[in-house]
Amino acid sequence: IMTECTSLQFVSPFAFEAMQKVDVVRLASLSDPELRLLLPCLVRMALCAPADQSQSWAQDKKLILRLLSGVEAVNSIVALLSVDFHALEQDASKEQQLRHKLGGGSGESILVSQLQHGLTLEFEHSDSPRRLRLVLSELLAIMNKVIVAHCSLEFPDSRDPPTSLPSLLPIVDVAEALLHVRNGAWFLCLLVANVPDSFNEVCRGLIKNGERQDEESLGGRRRTDALRFLCKMNPSQALKVRGMVVEECHLPGLGVALTLDHTKNEACEDGVSDLVCFVSGLLLGTNAKVRTWFGTFIRNGQQRKRETSSSVLWQMRRQLLLELMGILPTVRSTRIVEEADVDMEPNVSVYSGLKEEHVVKASALLRLYCALMGIAGLKPTEEEAEQLLQLMTSRPPATPAGVRFVSLSFCMLLAFSTLVSTPEQEQLMVVWLSWMIKEEAYFESTSGVSASFGEMLLLVAMYFHSNQLSAIIDLVCSTLGMKIVIKPSSLSRMKTIFTQEIFTEQVVTAHAVRVPVTSNLSANITGFLPIHCIYQLLRSRSFTKHKVSIKDWIYRQLCETSTPLHPQLLPLIDVYINSILTPASKSNPEATNQPVTEQEILNIFQGVTGGDNIRLNQRFSITAQLLVLYYILSYEEALLANTKTLAAMQRKPKSYSSSLMDQIPIKFLIRQAQGLQQELGGLHSALLRLLATNYPHLCIVDDWICEEEITGTDALLRRMLLTNNAKNHSPKQLQEAFSAVPVNHTQVMQIIEHLTLLSASELIPYAEVLTSNMSQLLNSGVPRRILQTVNKLWMVLNTVMPRRLWVMTVNALQPSIKFVRQQKYTQNDLMIDPLIVLRCDQRVHRCPPLMDITLHMLNGYLLASKAYLSAHLKETEQDRPSQNNTIGLVGQTDAPEVTREELKNALLAAQDSAAVQILLEICLPTEEEKANGVNPDSLLRNVQSVITTNTPNKGMEEGEDNLLCNLREVQCLICCLLHQMYIADPNIAKLVHFQGYPCELLPLTVAGIPSMHICLDFIPELIAQPELEKQIFAIQLLSHLCIQYALPKSLSVARLAVNVMGTLLTVLTQAKRYAFFMPTLPSLVSFCRAFPPLYEDIMSLLIQIGQVCASDVATQTRDIDPIITRLQQIKEKPSGWSQLCKDSSYKNGSRDTGSMDPDVQLCHCIERTVIEIINMSVSGI
Q1: Which of 111, 219, 713, 739 is a Cys-bridge partner for 137, taking CB atoms 3.0 to 4.6 Å apart?
Q2: Domain ranges within the chain, ordered by starting residue
Q3: Neighbours of 856 (CB within 10 A)
Q4: What are the residues facing 588 on neighbouring strands?
């Protein structure tokens, strides 16, 4: 079409714009041939009555009439406008219906009667009305055929005649019909030019009805050419039409053609052209439908043999190639300069650099060609491949854009290795890669970009050495910013070049160590960094293979870190630890990396372990300190986990000393990390996991709760109350105030109250003074408020320096013995023997604030001891094989391990139970307290008496007297700790109760320890023990549990106990019977109180016991028989004995106690028990 319409004159953009704006002045400047194309519209404007009645339009209309007056063809148009359009429309509508019935055939015509001559002669010999009918008839015939061809035949209903001719001839349908006639594009342009407001409607209609691939058919190409003519006539709308093309995913050739037309019109030499932007947007955009549509256009265009200049794809490729060649530094051959020539002129380079203003455009072109080849499947010609290689191996300036260009070029070489086909081209590539290695340091320093292409080179070399081709493919796709298919087999030649010519493994490792660390490494620095290279080399064990030390580099990089945490740091530390512990090969067990030294670790934490201005003294960031802490904890955990493997290899890497760990403020650092969780990524959670495993005493729940209180809103309010006086108190002033405590309490109170306003880290300098003077607070006369404030300060300090604080506190609370030098315990001593904590000054046991601190430390050291013994067990595991590798032990290698584990568990159980027993002893009143009238179980009984007795006022007074005492508060603190221990490990509760403890404490433990109900599970087992003492203790314990927990389970165990007592009655000797029943008979009262259904069984048991006793005392039958008789009567008629039950002689058991015979005493005890039961029942009723 483009060629057949070249001889015709089209409407110029100038004329079309004048028609759009009805600019009469511009129209007047048109030549007669240009004006003639617009006559239909101009004549209508001049003759038809306008809607605009303004004076200005009247003047313009006169000017239009003046223009038309000189054109002879105007008369013919005027004659056409005089036709009876209503009759014409009716005939046209009838003919349209007729053609619809005939199926689009060319039969009779209503518009035109029988033609006497041919259509052309008839047209020439006819008048204007008949000419109009002839054209209309022919146009309707073409439109009908087009509609039939598109299978969308639609006609207006005959009962609704059209009101105007445009409804009969929609302009979009007319445009479709004109595409099928000769010079149709020219006719279409004239039609739109005379109806300029229909431009967008016509274009959208033609695009919507167009083919998905316009280059595939003649009709598609004609449509594309027609739309190009329309856009040439109205160039301002060309890009909008292109947008319609992409929106509909039709006519891709048109989109490219319009872009080519636009590119030719714009004068853009240095910037990225519109063609590059448009095609890149289609292929690299997020719309997969558009990407597939345009990719199909590229693939189909390549498959056609007709690849001439008329093809839009060919024109696009040619334009891209011209743009590429336009920015090449010089047109140079791939021939490499001979070495002799280079030696002669060393300062002259045949490789001229890429201009700085062309770098961005060159990068855009490279990405576009990558997309065309990788996504759309474009196969480059030899010329395109040659020029692309020339561009890729050019040398840009040292700018951030230059770094980006080199990275893209390198990845494109990896992705499309077929671009390098000849030995000369391969040599050119090798020279360029060598230049990259040589210049990367200069590029990084000059451009200011941390992530340079040098790291990418190293990374790719490492991937090639470890044969991780999929990782290289991922790296290439990530750098190019597109997902393309790269076959691993296509990388074989590049792998050979990298591993054998450019980067041998030894060169890689030696070069990697010399790469400077990234300053202030954080997640904000993106791209490929030295850390990625070191990580891959560590994974492949290259450093250990070639005996290259990497420890110093890793240490320097850890020191140069900041928030937000870079995601590669934790994997780097993990793989570094693995390379320290695990040899690279079994044949060379010494091939490992060196760990970070203890002195280097201490340097990191310098200024954190205490001092006035903690943050000012820190040389390293909190990120570096947390990472080193993560390294130490992970190293120790990995060392224990690999003990067996290391023992088999006869290797024993050194673990870090306990003194080093004592100097690291672990809890302080963890607390700092808690406030930076968002910036530290997964480091905080990883540290918590390691802490819970290796340092459980730093993960006590109470501490976390206390810490929440310290760092919450209340703390913020306290900080607002902070005055200069609080800040001015020095540790020395606090020491002087403590020295004056025996005389003056006010000064100490004032200072420590001010200290409560300080934060935990600001309190660290005062820790030693506070702990060293705790023993002075045990003296009588020290106000309770001072003790409570010291406890509060201690708990705050416990959130930042628990381990150091505990050691200082334990040493400060040792008993002061004259002429005996106090031992200074260490952290290790206390972990080995946690019971040292309880060997404190006895006065602490009656000082609740300090006892609270002691119990906190005891709980922590019991947990620490468990972790210490588990670690010690694993550490000494490697010594076991040498001791047990004897003949005859095959198949029994697990036996020693099981034994050691059992011994460890037995030791821990003994340790925990000893702590519990000591604490229970502390709950007993001392001799002095007993002398003052304190009864161990009076506290509970007095409280119960408030409820059960008829004299509440007296009971309340006694209860208040006993509840407001230090012993009671200490008992509550101990019961809380025991409750936690029982819940954490129910076996401790079982062990302690199998060991037994004073029965005077049973009311306290059952009422004060909520978890005592778990004893119901093992009481049957305890009752079944052969020792009489354990059976007695079990029944006494059960009696209190039944009162506290009247549950169905308690009832069944109580019934079992009654049955056991009945059974023992028949087997025990007289002495044992007395020893068993005397302490257990009062428990039957509790059983009846908790469970009345047991009344009958218990009464029968009591009578049986009495009968057995009576039968054993034949000489005192006269004394015993009345008792048995009374028992029978009481059982049968208990209500009649209610008055007797209230008799004080029965209650107090003063009757018949003169006899010392055990059976007689037992009978009296039975009588008292029965009376108590009946008294309880009657009073209950």
Answers
A1: 111
A2: 8-82, 84-164, 170-267, 303-329+354-503
A3: 24
A4: 585
